[in-house]
Amino acid sequence: MEKKGPNPRYITRQAADGIISKLNWRYEEWMQDWPLEISQEINIKDCLQEYKNLQSDDEKFVLMQGILYALDEETTNSELEYYWKEISELLIKDFKIHEYTIFYWGLYEGGENEDPATEGFRITPLMQEIWNKNNDTTTKAKNH
Predict the structure, then answer these.
(1) What is the reported pTM?
(2) How far apart are CA 31 and CA 90, in angstroms?
(3) Interacting residues of 26 by C-beta distance below 8 A, sequence separation 6+
(4) In the beta sheet, which residues pair with residue 37?
(5) 82-132: pLDDT as tens digits
(6) Roughly what angle, to the nearest 10 degrees, separates helices 57-73 and 13-23?
(7) DSSP E strands: which ranges in the chain?
(8) Left (φ > 0), alpha (ψ -120 to 50) or beta: where does 62 sit?
(9) More confident residue, 138 or 97
(10) What angle do CA 123, 64, 135 make, to 5 degrees?
(11) Are 58 and 15 in contact, with CB atoms under 8 Å apart?
C-alpha cells in the first residue's frame, strides 16, 4: 500500500539558477528531467563540498537532487559506498529539507504491487533506511 508521505517539494527556478551558476551545471530549457539528464556529468565530490557552504534550503534541495541522481548512476559499489556515508549524514542532518526526496527515492509513492527490488533505484534500500529511522512513526505507519 502507498504510504502517506510529506507534501511534495519542487525545485525553484531561483535555486536552480544558483546551483547552475555555482557548479557550472549544464541546463537547457527543453530538459524535462533536469538534473537527471546531467547526472553523469555531476561531480559528487564537488557537490558535497559546495553543499556545506550553502545557506539556502532551496539550493540544498536542488543540489541534493543532483547528488542523488549522480549517486544512483555510479557504476561501482565501492563508489556508492564511498559517498553514501557523507550523503546520508547530510540527509539526516537536513531531514526536513529532504523529507520528500527521501520518501520519493524510497519508493513509498508506488502502489502495493511495486517491488523496490525490481522497480526501484539502486539507492532505494538506503533511502528507506533513512526514512524509517528518521521519520515520525505516526506518518510512517499511516496508509492512504
Answers:
(1) 0.84
(2) 27
(3) 38, 41
(4) none
(5) 999 999 999 999 999 999 999 999 998 665 545 555 568 999 999 999 999
(6) 60
(7) none
(8) alpha
(9) 97
(10) 65
(11) yes
Q: What is the pLDDT of residue 115?
A: 58
How confident is the model over 128-138, as a mean pLDDT? 82
- Helices 124-134, 77-93: crossing angle, 10 deg rounding: 20
Beta bridge partners of 3: 143
Distance from C-alpha of 48 to C-alpha of 85, rounded to nearest angstrom: 11
Between CA 11 and CA 61 the distance in angstroms is 7
In sequence order, the β-bridge partners of residue 143 are: 3
In the block, residue with C-alpha cell 534541495 = 61
C-alpha cell at 31: 530538459
Question: Could you read off the pLDDT of 62-86 as tens digits, one per residue?
Answer: 999 999 999 998 778 899 999 999 9
What span, in angstroms and rounded, lies between the C-alpha atoms of 60 and 94?
9
Place of cell 563508489: 79
Residue carrying C-alpha cell 510512517: 140
Torsion of the alpha carbons at 129, 134, 135 and 138, rounded to the nearest 10:
110
Q: Are 51 and 64 in contact (CB under 8 A)?
A: yes
